[in-house]
Amino acid sequence: MAKIKTTYKDAINLALVQEMERDDSVFIYGIGVPDHKKIFGTTANLVEKFGKERCFDTPLSEDALTGMALGAAINGMRPILVHIRVDFSLLAINQLVNQISAFRYISNGKFKVPIVIRNIIGRGWGQGCQHTKSMQSLFAHIPGLKVVMPTTIEDAKGLTAAAIRDNNPVMLMEHRWLYFQEGEVEEEPFILPLDKASKIRDGKDITIVATSWMNVEATRAADILEKRGVSVEIIDPRCISSIDIDPIVKSVLKTKRCIIADYDWVYGGISGELSSQIYDWCHKSLKAPIKRIGFAHIPCPTARHLEDEFYSNSADIIREVERILGLPEMDLTGEEFYSYENKFKGPF
Amino acid sequence: MDNKIIELYKKIYLIKKVEDVIKDNYFDDEMKTPMHMSKGSEAIAAGVCFALGDRGQYFSTYRSHAPYLASGGDVKKFFAEMYGKKQGQYAGRAGSMHIASPETGHISSSAIVASNIPVAVGAAWANKMQKNGKIVVVFFGDGAMDEGNFWESINMASLWSLPILFICENNKLAVHTRPEERQGYSNIEKIIEQFGMIKSSALGISVELVYDITDLILKAMIEQKRPGFIELEYYRHLEHVGINSDINETYREVDNKRFCKDKDPILELRERLLILDINVESIEAEISKEIYVALEHAKKGEFSDISEIYKDVFYG
Fold first, then answer.
1. What is the ipTM of this complex?
2. Structural domain spans, chain B
3. Helix axes B265-275, B207-224, angle to 10 degrees
4. Minimal CA–CA distance to A65: which of A35, A8, A27, A24?
């Protein structure tokens, strides 16, 4: 099996191409999907390859477009709806929560509802309070929706393909900064399970459960902490709607310490659910209370220094690890942290 | 003798009688499900479904009894669903507000106003892609036209020339609120005309008239490959939800009262059948018998095992 050099965004694109080639009932649509910007490149070549019937632009009608996905799905199609910002999916919350998530259940299993909704999440470049959210916790709260956050390039390809083949509604949450990731992936079509966590890094002193972009921050924090002899294990749940708790419990029983770094608001968020589940299994083994890291409990402000405070990063993780382990604060001068100042300049 | 008129009468009588039987039993409190009764609108669902036949896929509101029964939905499973029994159409999960009969074309009922309209649009889009000749019908009330979903949906149906027929069952009441309190326009037909739909409007009391109009609109829709829109006015005989009359409430007009009494779809056709010397009593007796058998079957049915509750949230 040959691997190819690629990026996260091209891995999504390849999964879309391969699944649309494999199955004629797959189609992709949404505001701006076939336009020249191609949803940050993820929908490149689709309209050219599959035509306007299977890849099309739409009215600015998120609510009806989402209802449309349900109607098409129960009539034998496999829709992929794209929101260039997850924030726009809120216009369709009625269809998601009142219709799509409940449709199979309320009909006593009569229908299957194969829908993929791709939501681009997270931080950009001064995007303010309406183009910056993540909201996996909100969607995961609803029974009947699968919520999946691909982190690596392999995830991007394998989980996108799996979501398309799944016979249930799947919310894919794609962090825009992950799009630039470079690496290798299997060229041939493959799928990854939609309900399994993955271990990002082996360690023994503390477990960090991180979602989406926070895996990047946690990995950087782990690299820096390693220099002073702290060994960090990182687990990515990937599936938010049904937590694969076993590998997380196994890790925490080993390290006896845990931080949850979620890319969402902390208050009422999925980090609370994770924490509760980990306590259920590990409370007798824990040497310190579980700590949670995430967004400040405010709407996201625009100016850079405020935005920096809103989101958590590697430095926040390092300080929390130090507190838990009872270590003095290390000098972080000279350490390089992720900044997309150079790669990501906007305007969008 | 035209058999059609008898078949249409059977449909509207079935809907009426089912709801009469519900009324007789509702206060036993064994049917624990809010019901939005179809009484007064029997001719609309019956006429439209009869005109569509096997081609039809129906999406409805929580006023679900008429489209379920008009499409040919199983009467035993209907009553068992109302009683929450495992023999019910959806084993008690759906109740009155979400019952449907996909086997006979009634795909779903939704209890959020207008929320089934875009779902119907998606179904029509799929049918167009699959070139299967199916035609989607979506039933909604005039209250739904206040929702953004409605406007988004008619725009998409028009833009993509979808095989979908919008049926506005206009009773001029959104729960208890009249159009003049809600609508900044006076003529929906003129607006629909701008969307290039095949359109018509009429009083939805005569089931034959509803059938004829639907048939004409369908022919034009197929010929011109355009969506259709029919506004059918009717009189809601009962209150918004439940089996009681609200005819003396202030939000009902005098005209409404008169029409409820004089323009009942069943009485209208029944009188004509009698003139034609058709044995109406025997038709009605046969339907009533089926309904009472279904009622007893439902009452005797069992509740599903509680372990069933977690099944089918997801496929697989």
1. 0.95
2. 4-302
3. 100
4. A27
A144·B314 Cβ contact <8 A? yes
Which residues in chain A land under pLDDT 50?
Answer: none
Asked if B304 has any chain A CB less than 8 Å from its own CB, the reply is: no
**Chain A contacts of B116, Cβ < 8 Å?**
67, 99
Distance from C-alpha of B223 to C-alpha of B28, rounded to nearest angstrom: 51
pTM, entire model: 0.96
Question: pLDDT (tens digit, 9 = 90+) per residue, B191-219?
Answer: 999 999 999 999 999 999 999 999 999 99
Going by pLDDT thresholds of 50, 70 and 90, the confidence category of residue B258 is: low
Query: Which of B68, B125, B164 to mutate to probe the A interface, most A CBs <10 Å?
Result: B125
- B4-302 CATH, one of 3.40.50.970, 3.30.390.30, 3.40.50.300, 3.90.1170.30: 3.40.50.970
A77 with B129: Cβ contact below 8 A:
yes
Paired sense of beta strands B135-141 and B164-170, if any: parallel
Task: Write down the pLDDT at residue A345.
Answer: 62
Instruction: Please tell me the distance from the alpha carbon of residue A135 to that of residue A115, in angstroms, as a whole number.
Output: 19
B87 close to A (CB below 8 A)? no
Length of chain B equals: 316
- Contact indicator for B303, A92 with CB cutoff of 8 Å: no
